[in-house]
Here is the input.
Amino acid sequence: MCFSQNIRKIDSLILLLNNESLSVEEQTTKLKTIAHYHPKLNEALKYAKRLLDLAEDINSNALRAEAYEEISHIERQLGNNSASLNATLKALQIYESEGMADRLAASYNQLATNYMSDENYNSAIKYLKKAEKIYSDSDHIQNHILTILNLGEAYRLDKHLDSAATTFQKTLLLNKTINNNIIQGYSQGNLGMVYNAQNKLMLAKECLNDAIHILGPLEDYYSTSVYIAELGTVYNKEAKYGDAENQFLEALAMAEQAGLKEQIRDFSAQLSSFYENRAQYAQALTYQKSFQVYQDSLVNKENVQKIEQLKAGYEIDKRESEIGLLNSINTKQKYWVIALGLGISLLLLFAYLLYKGNKKVKTTNSALSKQKDIITKREQEKAMLLRELNHRIKNNLQMISSLLNLQSHELTGHPAKEAIIAGKHRVEALSLVHRKLYQEDLDTRIMLKDYIEELVLGLFHGYDASFKPNFEIDDISVSLDMAVPLALVINEIIINALKYAYQNIDSPRLKLIMAEDKNDLDIQIIDNGIGFNTSKAEENNAFGIKLIYALIEQLEGVIKKLDSKTGTHWKMKIKIN
Here is the structure.
């Protein structure tokens, strides 16, 4: 909301900043505002660094620290965690040396938030305690209470339940001085979750009900739905299955109304487990399917994927070395048997010739049979390792997609959200390749028809499209090296169409054609939308358009985009491998 309300203000401030007659104080004010509210993070970072340069010019420690705080905040949003942490520590050093207690406490809170995001709860607790001590000696009561609330949550996530309960009780006691409903609701709800984990079910129900009654009217659907579902788990422990079922269903309905996909996934999983334990298998299957749909739609870290690939590659190479060693041993054994057979044949002359010949044949067949068994077993192990590799890659990509989706929720209203969501869809396109390899076959080729249809339908589902695409796809298989970039190309074009093509279009249509022409794959994607200008998009540095052309070039293909008054028509030709 803050970004959308300040876009025009930012533009005007940038124009004013170019005025050479501005005083240092005016420059400082404008740079702070632009860095904090600029919708483009890279631009915001540029102005934050200009603020730091200004602080160096006027030799102001306080301004240096504020600039470092702003840089830390922006780097964190960009995913540069080490740069963010480094900037925060520099700000802390200045605030400590200058004795600026309030600013020091705020920096401690920010540092703790960074550590909690990385699940480093011990470090988060340490800095939250430091911030709490500073605020306890100040008159910032609300900041003091919020810091204690965050400390309780860090304890809860780190499984220190007794400490968490004590901390939330302290929050409730202090909140009586300011009567803040949000603080009251979160404190009661989180305390209820702690009591549930401790099996103090009566106390858990009281706290969770209080939180729901406070936060529900405030339309905090995320927290309210979580607490309703938690209340369902309490009833389930008490064997009040009817009440538990009602709570789970109410939480799911609220999440669906608010469009909270992660909560829909989690609550569907809870309902599936609940009905399965009650032997109501039809309902369990229904919610398991719902869970799988949302789990797949929420499906990165690239380094994790590379590590897993290297580990699996190492295991495969080790197995292949073992197979080679066994083959060498078997070969030597075979030669030894042949030599022994010849020696005995010479000694026994012609009388034993037939006997030794038969023995040699039997021995050779036995050795070959054993060798074949060993090779077959090793090949099976290699295939299993390849399958496990694809499974691990799929899981890692799903985890990355979930992290990106979670980050996009944190950036509601922020222009960076579109980039995060676009990245998530690209990761899901890659994940689908490895899911196909893991579930369907041990081969490294993909059947285009099923794969592309599932990819496109998943995008239509993710963007809540009101119509269905039309497919004309031949039965063609392609290699993994071709499937991955092709999937990204299709992903970019379909998303672009769903986002921009059908504004004010009464009967939207989209057709995807893939046909084999000798050794080439002909692809056409046709929509009846409003069309767009490729050269203009390239001038605006559109990443998606650059990615499409770069991937087609990588595939040694050609691409054309035909514009008309009735939509956009993409035509591509790629060599099949």
